[in-house]
Design a protein that fits this description.
heterodimer; A: 134 residues; mainly alpha; Protocatechuate 4,5-dioxygenase, Chain A; 10 helices; B: 283 residues; alpha/beta; Protocatechuate 4,5-dioxygenase, Chain B; eight-stranded mixed β-sheet; two-stranded antiparallel ribbon; 9 helices
């Protein structure tokens, strides 16, 4: 089956509140994600926690990416090419769980987010398509 | 000859592993989730059901593979695999022992069968692989089965299509059938079900869609193999795409295979948990 790559990519951008990790974002976020990956090692985590700004100096990331990491602004990091499984190394180093970090991207207080999950999660109704509104 | 006796599908949420490691499984939050695996634990420990080898299909979550190397289908061929340090120290679970002869045999057979597998030796395995083992076998001193890891890229787009995954399952079944040792093999597909871990839409769950997927694994697998990426994304959240890995498991079983057990629970952390055991038809 041959796929029209442009139609395929356009659809990926049509989902509300979602940044699909496409090749374009993978290129944009290469160093941002590799920086995050470096925190897999205990000694790197120590150096990072001791002085975040100095640690970032060694990484060829954009100023926007560096600032968004320092701010722990995860929605901004998604926009700048970050991928959640890489960014997880940053929030894990902060001692945050997936639920805690993920809730910060939803604009909901942690308690409300946890209540929503216990009640069955966020409904897909109205959240499937920006253009279609369904 | 080797034969595939059954397939298992299960979510692999890291928090499930933490709940087990920290002895929280009897807490109200976790109890109903683990209750749905009790049937499988008893079933799989019976001598007539226990496999010698599990071909375990999972995805690496930026652990062994970073942005430097993104294999679509990778097969682990080393003797053993260590549980990975994912940023909070390695899980204290047993080392994963491979069946390297079978792994190399599957690699060469699939490559000749038009699947260009990436062969990996040194590879630490993350929660995607160890949580399913914990769910089925609890906390033993050593895993009671050999494990052939098959890692699928579902992180960087595009992941393989559902149909491609299904066909890989069929190729794996052909490879197992030509392996000369008389061993019992299971294929596990892991990940899913609906969940989204990023952006303002995070927390999305679609129980109706998930349950239809579980049902159609035996009722209508032909429908499942045609589901496009965009449907997984729209209906099941950005991380629901992991369910394509269940289709590798399904493709490795015969058409008229039947479900022995199903379980569905929301939530585990941010995720809907699904589980199925399918007995492979004998002909």
């Amino acid at each position: 089956m041959t796929v029209d790559i442009h139609a395929y990519l356009a659809e990926l951008e049509d989902i509300p509140g979602t940044r699909v990790y496409t090749t374009k974002r993978a290129r944009q976020g290469y160093w941002l994600n590799q920086f995050a990956m470096s925190l897999m090692k205990a000694e790197s985590r120590q150096a990072w926690l001791a002085d975040e700004a100095t640690y970032l100096e060694d990484w060829p990331m954009s100023d926007d990416q560096k600032q968004a990491v320092l701010d722990r602004d995860y929605n901004r990091l998604l926009d700048l090419g970050g991928n959640i499984y890489y960014l997880a190394k940053v929030f894990s180093t902060d001692g945050q769980s997936f639920v805690q970090a993920v809730s910060t991207m939803t604009g909901m207080p942690l308690e409300d987010y946890q209540k929503m999950m216990l009640a069955g999660g966020r409904s897909p109704i109205g959240m499937r398509s920006i253009k279609g509104g369904y | 000859m080797a034969h595939i006796s059954a397939g298992i599908g299960t979510s692999h949420v890291p928090a499930i592993g933490m709940a087990m490691d920290l002895n929280k499984t009897e807490e109200d939050y976790w109890k109903p989730l683990f209750a749905g695996y009790q049937w499988t634990r008893e079933w799989i420990s019976a001598p007539e059901n226990k496999p010698d080898v599990v071909i375990l299909v999972y995805n690496d979550h930026a652990t062994a593979f970073d942005m430097n190397l993104i294999p679509t289908f990778a097969i682990g061929c080393a003797e053993t695999f260590q549980p990975a340090d994912e940023g909070w120290g390695p899980r204290k679970v047993p080392v994963v022992e491979n069946h390297p002869d079978l792994a190399w045999h599957i690699a060469q057979s699939c490559i000749l069968d038009d699947f260009d597998m990436t062969i990996v030796n040194k590879m630490d395995v993350d929660h995607g692989l160890t949580v399913p083992l914990s769910l089925m076998f609890g906390k033993p001193n050593a895993w009671p089965v050999k494990v052939v890891p098959i890692a699928v890229n579902v992180v960087t787009y595009p992941p393989p299509s559902g149909n491609r995954c299904y066909k890989l399952g069929e190729a794996i079944a052909r490879a197992v059938a030509s392996f000369p040792e008389d061993i019992k093999v299971q294929v596990w597909g892991t990940g899913g079900m609906s969940h989204q871990l990023q952006g303002p839409r995070a927390g999305l769950i679609n129980a109706a869609w998930d349950q239809k997927f579980l049902e159609d694994l035996t009722a209508d697998p032909e429908r499942l193999r045609t589901i496009p990426h965009i449907e997984y994304l729209r209906e099941t959240g950005s991380e629901g795409i992991e369910m394509v890995m269940w289709l590798i498991m399904r493709g490795a079983l015969r058409a008229n295979s039947t479900a022995l057990h199903k379980h569905y629970h929301v939530p585990a952390s941010n995720t809907a948990v699904g589980h199925i055991v399918i007995s492979n038809s004998t002909g």
